[in-house]
Design brief:
The complex is a heterodimer of chains A (301) and B (330).
Chain A (H helix, E strand, L loop, with lengths): L1 H8 L1 H14 L3 H21 L5 E3 L2 H10 L5 E5 L11 H4 L4 E2 L3 H4 L6 E5 L4 H9 L4 E4 L5 H15 L2 H21 L5 E6 L4 E3 L4 H8 L2 E3 H4 L5 E3 L2 H7 L3 E4 L9 H6 L11 E4 L12 H14 L1
Parallel strand pairs in A: 1-2, 1-4, 2-3, 4-5, 6-8, 6-10, 10-11
Antiparallel strand pairs in A: 7-9
Helix pairs in contact in A: 2-3, 8-9, 9-14
Chain B lengths: L3 H21 L7 H10 L4 H34 L12 H14 L9 H21 L5 H25 L9 H6 L7 H19 L2 H7 L3 H6 L4 H23 L5 H9 L7 H26 L7 H24 L1
The chains are: A alpha/beta (301), B mainly alpha (330).
């Protein structure tokens, strides 16, 4: 029953309407062939039961959705998705229904799949599951292997496994190409963010540095995850590269005073550079490769 | 026994000592030989960089802010003839912080260097005027404290609201800085923008010393002694708001120094309000420098705010004052 319902309501019905219009305008024989083809493809998709009304509850799933799934199947993405500072897919998200992770925003959209991050909107997720909605959550991948796995899983959930496979393949090719570019002496690096935070082991940023051929000094300092380090320890560490994360849209905070301290540009053996933009590292995904490319570029300058 | 020059000299040595202690403590152990070599041979040295760019601005700021809070406490206690008058207690610091928050988070500090300290000054001025209107010259401690509570609460709430609406994701968490104060991670820029305002404030306050002495005899007597009370009162108020406003605009609201220090030092100068001004400045500097040493020894990451330490010292002292003077005030 479900299958028939699906076929009638879905792509096929749209295709048939389109066909009738086209046949009337007289594209005759050619179109009949196309019609057969469309029917074939859509019945294939129907067997995989592709969700066609997907709601995303986190910035990271927003971006994966926008990369893998046709726009008409995306019911809603989060508000962050259209922020060009945070979202790699900001342009593609323009015009979609936006949510802030609230249950009341999600229910009227009648989603047939809800995707989100295991670390965002937990209450909404618990409630939506309780109501019987299918909810799929991605984790926080921190290595390239974990990103690969997440993309493939996500592709399977949303019914575009082959697209996901292609995406992973492309990532691997680009990374293999990068590997050849940065062979040579290891350079040391440290990241410094607003409020004096640095990124150590178990972070995506650490993976990026490692893959780009840097030794992250935060690891030697014993930093796990995100930790504050004092300005003095940073100066004393003497990294070859200091990657400073600036807060782009608003410098007026004490947090950003940390990253604009004059001492950062006076360290004799250190090159202080701006870190890669947030949209390339706010989430794990194929954009990470672009972030690594940018780091390799800074290293080879 | 304690002659005035000797007290001043002693306190000055204490300032030097605590200043040195403040630049000695920190997460990195400095090699003084390297710094000396860097200064003599003009060589690049990490130790010199840490000393000059990180520790000296911090210690200078602690010294300037501590001295300001000490001298302004002594001035306000003399002016209002009230032992509990202090910029933190009567709401001057919070209002100065409110002024600074408004210009800082809404991007106005980029207009010019003096916008931030000036905004602190204006905020402080508003609160002093309100204190005068609410508590007047009656000298009633209860009225003064109640007015202070009202102004503090209002300024705190407005500050939280301003931070909430500020176009910045970090703004709201930074309320801790503005309410408790800190001199960590500041650069010479912050020292330089406050120095002109603080200097003017100190000079104005110190020039009112004889007036404060006369005020102990009552306002009418002061007038009959030939003082222009109206003029001098304004001069003192402008002096206090200039230095407190500028200090708070870069360090946040560091409480209780202006309360504790004048009380502790008053016997040293035989309850002479004029002499109390200078010794309170030196004493305030010592207390804040030592508090900053304590902050760094207790938490290397600098998470602990300076106001926590000064309040830990000042809070119990405040209670002691209330208990001691309970009979006098009721």
């Amino acid at each position: 029953m479900y299958l028939i319902d699906f076929i009638l309501n879905g792509v096929v019905r749209r295709a048939i309407y389109g066909a009738i219009v086209l046949v009337r305008t007289g594209l005759g024989v050619w179109f009949k062939c196309l019609l057969v083809l469309v029917l074939g493809v859509s019945s294939c998709l129907a067997q995989e039961s592709v969700p066609k009304n997907i709601v995303s509850l986190s910035l990271c799933t927003d971006q994966l959705l926008l990369m893998l799934v046709p726009r008409q199947h995306i019911a809603s993405v989060t508000r962050g998705a259209i922020d060009p500072h945070l979202s790699y897919m900001a342009a593609a998200a323009d015009g979609l229904v936006l949510n802030s992770g609230g249950i009341e925003e999600v229910l009227p959209l009648k989603p047939d799949l809800i995707v989100g991050s295991a670390f965002a909107s937990r209450d909404a997720v618990r409630f939506l599951r309780h109501l019987g909605y299918p909810v799929k959550l991605i984790g926080l991948p921190q290595s390239i292997a974990e990103i690969r796995e997440m993309v493939l899983n996500f592709g399977a959930w949303v019914g575009y496994h082959s697209g996901a496979k292609q995406m992973v393949k492309k990532m691997d090719e680009q990374l293999a190409h990068l590997d050849k570019q940065h062979q040579g002496i290891k350079k040391t690096a440290l990241i410094y963010s607003p409020n004096g935070y640095t990124m150590g082991s178990g972070t995506l940023e650490n993976t990026m540095l490692k893959v780009a051929g840097f030794d992250n000094l935060a690891i030697e300092m014993g930093v796990v995850g995100f930790e504050q380090i004092t300005l003095e320890r940073l100066v004393a560490a003497q990294p070859d590269f200091l990657f400073i994360e600036k807060h782009v849209d608003n410098p007026n905070s004490l947090a950003s005073h940390y990253v604009s301290h004059p001492v950062l540009n006076k360290m004799p053996l250190t090159q202080a550079l701006e870190f890669i933009p947030s949209r390339l590292r706010a989430c794990a995904g194929p954009m990470v490769v672009e972030a690594i490319e940018s780091l390799v570029g800074k290293r080879n300058e | 026994m304690n002659s005035y020059p000797r007290v001043l000299g002693l306190l000055f040595l204490a300032v030097m000592g605590s200043f040195f202690a403040d630049i000695c403590v920190g997460p990195v152990t400095l090699q003084w030989a390297n710094i000396w070599a860097a200064m003599v041979d003009n060589k690049a040295s990490l130790d010199a960089l840490i000393l000059f760019e990180i520790r000296l601005p911090r210690a200078f700021l602690a010294m300037l802010v501590g001295a300001t809070l000490g001298i302004s406490g002594a001035a306000l206690q003399g002016l209002l003839r009230n032992p509990l008058a202090e910029s933190g207690v009567i709401g001057v610091s919070n209002c100065a912080a409110l002024g600074a928050v408004l210009v800082f988070y809404f991007g106005m500090t980029q207009w010019s260097w003096f916008v931030l300290p000036l905004a602190g000054l204006v905020g402080a001025l508003v609160s002093v005027v309100m204190i005068f209107l609410l508590a007047g010259r009656s000298g009633s401690t209860v009225t003064l404290i109640l007015a202070g509570i009202a102004i503090n609460t209002l300024a705190g709430a407005l500050m939280a609201m301003a931070l909430n609406f500020a176009p910045n994701p970090y703004a709201m968490q930074e309320i801790v800085f503005w309410l408790l104060g800190s001199v960590a991670n500041r650069s010479m820029n912050e020292v330089l923008i406050t120095v002109p305002f603080i200097t003017v404030g100190w000079v104005l306050i110190l020039s009112c010393g004889r007036f404060l002495n006369a005020l102990t005899l009552g306002e009418e007597t002061t007038k009959s002694l030939g003082f222009n009370v109206r003029h001098l009162r304004w001069r003192l108020v402008i002096g206090v708001v200039a230095c407190v406003g500028a200090a708070v605009s870069v360090s946040g609201n560091i409480g209780f120094i202006g309360l504790v220090i004048p009380h502790l030092l008053r016997p040293w100068v035989r309850h002479d309000p004029q002499r109390l001004l200078a010794v309170s400045a030196l004493g305030g500097a010592v207390l804040l420098l030592l508090s900053d040493v304590a902050v760094q020894l207790l938490s290397s990451g600098g998470e602990l705010k300076l106001g926590v330490i000064t309040s830990l010292v000042g809070g119990p002292f405040f209670l002691y004052l209330i208990l001691k003077n309970r009979n006098v005030w009721s």
